[in-house]
Amino acid sequence: MKKAVALGSFLILFWVFSGVAAAQSLSGLTGPLDEVVDTVTGPVDQVTAPVYKVKEVFDKVTNPVTEALPAPIKDPVDNVVKDVGKTVDSVVNDVTNKAAAPTKNAPDTSVTGGNPSDGPGSAQATNRSASGTSATKTKAARTSRDSGKSSRGANRSEPGRDTEQVAAAGNTIEPGEVKGTHIIAPATDVEDSQGSGLSLTGVQILTWLILACLLMGAGAALFQGGRTRLRTARS
Amino acid sequence: MTLFRQNLLFAGLIVIALVVEVAILVWFFDERNDDDAVIGSGPESRLGETTDECGQASPSREPSNVRFDEGRRLAVKVPPKWTSRAEGSVVTVNKKNGEATLSVGLARPGGLLEALEDLRASLRRSYPNLEVTSVEPLSLDGCPARSVAGRARNRHGASLNFDAVVVAGPTENFVLAGFLERGTEPRLESKLDRVIQSVRFYLSEFGDRRARS
Question: In chain B, where are the structural domains located?
Answer without folding.
Answer: 1-36, 59-212
